[in-house]
């Protein structure tokens, strides 16, 4: 299991948060990343803790504020994504 220090996230944790930000369920994220649903819960919980966030939503907001997730990487229903 990757160690988390000073709010740094593993690639898997960041990927899980990005897919969460795009509205996927834990089951869908697990399928996308080739892992289990409980593994996704663990990744997101560890990332949330590492960031000092109070919830998944707060963790995503922190990632956006820190530039770890770009607004353009989040799909908005009814809008085309930037190329």
Automatic annotation (TrEMBL):
Organism of derivation: Streptomyces nigrescens
Entry's Gene Ontology BP terms: regulation of DNA-templated transcription
Transmembrane segments: none
Superkingdom of the source species: Bacteria
Boundaries of every HTH luxR-type domain copy: 6-63
Molecular functions (GO terms): DNA binding
UniProt name for this protein: LuxR C-terminal-related transcriptional regulator
Gene3D superfamilies according to UniProt: Winged helix-like DNA-binding domain superfamily/Winged helix DNA-binding domain
